[in-house]
Design a protein that fits this description.
This protein is α/β, with parallel strands linked by helices and 419 residues long. It has one domain (33-418): TIM Barrel (Alpha-Beta Barrel), CATH 3.20.20. 37% of the residues lie in helices and 14% in strands. It has 15 helices and 16 strands. Strand 5 (98-101) and strand 6 (106-109) form a beta hairpin. Helix 13 packs across helix 15 (398-409). The two termini are 38 Å apart. The structure holds flavin mononucleotide (FMN).
């Protein structure tokens, strides 16, 4: 699609409510109406022994049914994570459940893992196996068990394994009440009142007001450890079903080194094959949006983290008064934030995870990537590949080519760990 046509398409999509716009985009992609990016940018990324066409990925949630894989590949992505898929069809939460914040380049979503279940998902993956684009795309399947039934992960992994290059246990969807890996702990979900101190990275306690120095209660620490153990069980369950497919773990945001260490250690113990950081950020962790800049941030990055954000100096309500902008349902704040303010958090987490797991293990950086420099920043922090979603909604498909061209122009974005 030419630039004029694609910007007309973006303008149209912006006028539609978010979920309608999304459905229409998927329909277009399925019918070959998406753009085609023909250049190749081999940036040297290797995942689980396979050379990637490029390390720019579509993050989970954009293609929950795996229905438009050829379209994403034509758009230029080297990697797509389809899903998150659950065993049974699910309606998800009541609408409205996706809110745009255009000025901030952000979204809040409270979808709650809606979907058609595993059957159409696997049928779509199977169909893609025969497609000419299959050889050009690295394909992952994100799986979850909303009720915390480990056997479901075994079943999901076994159904997807023949058709995918890796599996992801999504242990961090903030939108499913009672989800084992929900970022809200047992304490916060049973009471129905989210507790600021019991929410975090894949599920552990997070000191909302003192994110850098721990400060969480003993009960919250206990919850964090036990949730790390549950996540470990879920990784094992996925590995049992996944034949020998690699199993990655997707975490939610945190800047608490202790919480992150517990999650990493438990996952490694369960023989996880890689990490994805980060998922969306729930209201309870809103303070991280303001000081989204990790403790060791100053070490090694020299550029403006938000280079082409014209609004950089405009007040951002997600920082100044998140409670006034955050969507509510029945008087309760709901959903998870995605957008530019995740970038610092993702960068900090990539750096920490990379340092913990060594140079070889795949780590994907995701969260707030909306420009070439954003993507290169996470690659330089040690990400093997990057993934994005919200940036695609605001910038359109040209974000993919912009990233590839920028990464090529600045040279091989080799991590300091892979020299
Ligand atoms: C509408 C929407 C739906 C999402 N659904 C999923 C999902 O099903 N599984 C998942 O692991 N992450 C899901 N995510 C999170 C994204 O994959 C990603 O981790 C997050 O949005 C941060 O990246 P971004 O700022 O580039 O969007 C979703 C995000 C959005 C905005």
């Amino acid at each position: 699609m030419g630039t004029a046509k694609s910007s007309a398409a973006l303008t149209l999509l912006r006028r539609l409510p978010p979920e309608k716009a999304h459905a229409l985009s998927l329909w277009g992609l399925r019918h070959g109406l998406g753009p085609r990016y023909r250049e190749e940018h081999d940036l040297g990324a290797v995942l689980f022994g396979k050379r990637l066409r490029n390390p720019v990925g579509l993050s989970a949630g954009a293609d929950k049914r795996a229905e438009a894989l050829p379209g994403w590949s034509r758009m230029g992505f080297g990697l797509v994570e389809a899903g998150t898929v659950t065993v049974s069809p699910r309606a998800g939460n009541p609408t409205p459940r996706v809110w745009r914040f255009r000025e901030q380049g952000a979204l809040v979503n409270w979808l709650g893992l809606p979907g058609s279940g595993i059957e159409p998902f696997v049928a779509n993956l199977a169909q893609f196996e025969k497609h000419p684009e299959r050889g050009r795309l690295f394909v992952g399947a994100s799986i979850a068990t909303p009720d915390g039934v480990a056997d479901e992960l075994t079943m999901l992994a076994s159904a997807c394994a023949p058709y995918v290059d890796y599996l992801t246990v999504n242990a961090s969807c903030p939108n499913v009440a009672g989800h084992h890996g929900n970022t809200q702990s047992a304490e916060s979900t049973t009471s129905g009142v989210p507790n600021e101190r019991t929410v975090a990275a894949g599920n552990a306690p997070q000191a909302d007001h003192h994110p850098r120095d721990g400060g969480h209660t003993e009960a919250a620490q206990e919850a964090a450890r036990s949730q790390a153990q549950i996540v470990a069980q879920h990784i094992r369950a996925a590995k049992r079903g996944g034949e020998s497919r690699p199993v990655m773990l997707k975490l939610g945001p945190t800047q608490d080194p202790q919480v992150l260490t517990w999650m990493i250690d438990a996952a490694l113990e369960a023989e996880v094959d890689g990490f994805i950081v980060t998922n969306t950020l729930p209201f309870e962790l809103r303070s991280l949006l303001a000081n989204a800049d990790g403790p060791d941030h100053h070490h090694d990055h020299h550029h403006d983290p938000r280079p082409d954000r014209g609004q950089a100096n405009a007040p951002d309500p997600f920082v100044t008064s998140p409670a006034s902008v955050w969507p509510r349902h029945d008087g309760r704040t709901v959903g998870g934030y995605s957008g530019p303010r995740l970038l610092d958090i993702a960068a900090w987490m990539v750096r920490r995870v990379r340092a913990a797991v060594g140079p070889e293990m795949p780590v994907f950086g995701v969260g707030g990537i909306q420009s070439g420099p954003d993507a290169v920043r996470l690659l330089r922090e040690g990400a093997t590949a990057i993934q994005l979603y919200t940036g695609l909604i605001y910038k359109g498909p040209r974000l993919v080519s912009e990233i590839l061209e920028h990464a090529t122009a600045v040279g091989h974005p080799q991590s300091p760990f892979r020299t």
